[in-house]
Specification:
Length: 72
């Protein structure tokens, strides 16, 4: 892995930690709510959610027109 790839993976890991903390403190939230609170890019949020889902730390629920995330 080169330096740029390592930096990106680090950013994704930090974003995943931020998402986890928000869900741990505030309970289940939609993607839109998380995006607003993180003030980051949609892409980075999606990477972070994917990271947490891959680690089996999230439940991803479809509710009407939104996606709800909560910690397992």
């Amino acid at each position: 892995m080169d330096t740029i790839e390592m930096a990106i993976v680090g950013q994704i890991g930090e974003a995943a930690g931020d998402v986890w903390r928000l869900l741990n403190q505030g309970g289940p939230q939609t993607l839109a709510q998380l995006k607003k609170k993180l003030n980051g890019s949609s892409e980075m949020l999606e990477f972070a959610v994917g990271w947490l889902a891959r680690e089996d730390k999230l439940e991803i629920l479809k509710e009407k027109k939104s996606t709800l995330l909560r910690l397992k």
